[in-house]
Amino acid sequence: MTNLKRSAIATALTLALVSGLAACGSSDDAKPAEAAPSASPPASQSDKEAKGKAASGSGKEPAKPKPSASPSPKGPYKPATPKRPAQNVPVPGPLPEVAKEESKAGQVAFIEHWAKEFNYAVETGKLRPEFWEMTSRSCNYCKEVERALKNMEEQKTWNVGGDITVDNIRPDIEPLEDGIYEVRFSVSETARKRYASGKTKPVEEYPAGAVDQAFVELRRVKGQWRLEGFYQIAD
After folding, report:
1. Pair 16, 163: CB distance under 8 Å
2. CATH (domain of 164)
3. Enclosing domain of residue 227
4. Cα–Cα distances in Å, from 192 out to 15, 88, 162, 178, 186?
5. Whole-prediction pTM value?
6. DSSP string, 120-154
7. Structural domain includes residue 133
């Protein structure tokens, strides 16, 4: 297996999502406005916390089943508009069992589910705990997105559009010497506009973008895949 970082310079993905979100903290037009409606219901406690509370019961009542980390939204889904954020966004389902397999099918399913978690964050403005269960904190691209989303939350702004699609995934189950698996694919992003409460025009606007030679670094951790980095291959 060819080490892409040695054969070509690996740079941060240059989709509009990155350049746009990274600039959120410096936009003069995106000053804090009145609080916009919540884009999604608040997440419940983590599985670990829920388990601890269930175990601390008095014993007089049967233990209640622990809640999922992100309960299903109540009410109809309403996509984001220039006037308000998205509402009742459907949460991604649990990580499919096939996505945990050490196989080509497992890599494909993992990357596809990771993209669903990513798109959920773009639409709601929040990365779910499940995203970080799949993703290493060493992923610089992911940390930049998290920082930008926090800036958007502080500024009371939201996205319309900007979801990504991954295609032509080329799995490779032959690891490098350091245990990293490099999986190539193509990724595209729809046009994205960022709006703020009380403003009729977007405070930021970015066209659709695409990268034909993108790749992720995966690693096997505790019997499943974990994303270590998200890159494109430089020309």
Report:
1. no
2. 3.10.450
3. 97-232
4. 11, 20, 4, 37, 19
5. 0.75
6. HHHHHS---HHHHHHB-TT-HHHHHHHHHHHHHHH
7. yes
